[in-house]
Amino acid sequence: MSQMHELAIIGGGPAGHTAAIYAKRGGVDFVVFNDGLTGGQIATTATLENYPGVVGPISGVEFSQLMDKQAEQIGFEFEASRIEKITEENDHFVLTDDYDESWRAKVIILAAGAHYRPFPLEETPKYHGRGLSYCATCDGNFFRGQSVAVVGGGDTALEDALYLSRICEKVYLVHRRREFRGQPVLQWQVRGVENIELVMPYTPQRIEGEDGVEALVVKNKETGEPKRLEVTGIFSALGLLPNSELVEGMVETTDYGYVKVDARMHTSHPRIFAAGDVTDSPLRQIAVAVGQAAIAAETARCWINENCAIEMERG
Questions:
Q1: What is the pTM of this model?
Q2: Which of 68, 138, 155, 308 is catalytic?
Q3: Whether residue 135 lies in the annotated active site
Q4: 91 is catalytic
Q5: What domains sit in the chain, N to C, each tagged with a CATH number?
Q6: How far, in Å, are 46, 61, 196, 287, 304 from residue 53 at the CA level?
Q7: What's the pLDDT tens digit per position in 126-170?
């Protein structure tokens, strides 16, 4: 039978990493799972500069390497396992990975983050790895000196367009509205770059190309007029979807699947806490994720030790 832990932390990004730090400092017996790169989505970010103590900008990869070094110094390791199922048995949970290996824990902190929203065209699967990408910093170099399109209107889309403008001949920034949703400073920067062309208000209609992307056809939302963008690469930045499937039916979520938490990071289940991009937060930033995770870990410790003046159970 698998070993019983007091706490299981699911996620290897800033939230999961922070929860592990606080669990370690609090003397909690825990296991922390990471099925991908350390840092989660931050590992694919071009630059990080809005986090205290970071004299930057630095790359997401550099930040993730610092996290690895810190984990080694503190003395904890990630289980490189993808948890695919959580079941509840009496007073504990059983967590099972994709190889049917299992772990047991009394309390869970879900810090699984979010994933990219799929590109909304029927032919999307055909072009995966053949010109269609969800990560500008991962794949941008393949399109050096070429023309590309970025689709989206939030921070990620604006950051991707700025990143690609440095290595690509032309960047079309396609957005369905006449105004962006991203931070004003990013909007200002994008509008000042000569080789970024704003294509607004347009939506993708189809991708053209035999062996790879040759063009993206978009349509004006107001007039219906089509426009053909001759590009060899398309970068989708259409937002995120929470990785909350593991706790579906166990905790209360929003209509979009984000886990609802209170100020102590309680979910609607008394022994499941959540932190980071998987939660119903008004701002998805590293600073928010680490703050929530610190609270979640301390709340979990209190629940385990039964020695804190906080509400222990929520139904």
A1: 0.76
A2: 138
A3: yes
A4: no
A5: 4-116+240-305 (3.50.50.60), 124-236 (3.50.50.60)
A6: 18, 17, 31, 11, 32
A7: 998 899 998 887 789 899 999 999 999 999 899 999 999 999 999
